[in-house]
Design brief:
The protein is built from four helices and five strands; from the N terminus they run E-H-H-H-E-E-H-E-E. By secondary structure, the chain is an alpha+beta fold. It has a five-stranded antiparallel beta sheet with strand order 2-3-1-4-5, with helices on one face. A hairpin with a 6-residue loop joins strand 4 and strand 5. Helix 2 runs antiparallel to helix 4. The chain is elongated and about 50 Å long. Its EC number is 4.6.1.17. It comes from Litoribrevibacter euphylliae. Belongs to the MoaC family.
């Protein structure tokens, strides 16, 4: 069984030393969902919300959040991301917007936390912009879909 990498032999929290790791191209994708009523979803998709283009604001918020992940998660390394993408897929038949993120860099550590942070903050931004018209929204299903690069290799959800 693997051990936690952020805990030393004495049980202390530590930042993982990546100085000896090889720099490789690393990517990660994550997803999350914002569930809302039909009227709210239609408003978001039509761009008729009073606050403006909900998805444009959420996209920028997700990108900014990925860049600030190490400020939010105490033991994450500050990373020089080469690409961050945040996309949306309206799924009216399921009453939701699917949020997808992809983060990429060439470096010594992975970008799963950055992809998760991008999705989470994009979902939170959709919620924040729409909460006045839909109090019953919920955020669900935030998870890593895939990662590539590094010593542990590639992985993806089946």
């Amino acid at each position: 069984m693997s051990k936690f990498t952020h805990i030393d032999d004495k049980g202390n929290a530590v930042m993982v030393d990546v100085s000896e790791k090889q720099a490789t191209t690393r990517t990660s994708q994550a997803e999350g969902f914002v569930y809302m009523n039909d009227e709210t979803l239609a408003m978001v998709m039509a761009g008729s919300h009073k606050k403006g283009d909900v998805l444009a604001v959420a996209r920028i918020a997700g990108i900014q959040a990925a860049k600030k992940t190490s400020d939010l998660i105490p033991l994450c390394h500050p990373l020089m991301l080469s690409s961050v993408k945040v996309e949306f897929d309206a799924q009216p038949d399921q009453g939701r917007i699917k949020v997808l993120s992809m983060c990429k860099l060439t470096g010594q550590t992975g970008v799963e936390m950055e992809a998760l942070t991008a999705v989470s903050v994009a979902c939170l931004t959709v919620y924040d912009m729409c909460k006045a018209v839909d109090k019953m929204m919920r955020i669900d299903g935030v998870r890593v879909l895939s990662k590539s690069g590094g010593k542990s290799g590639d992985w993806q959800v089946e």
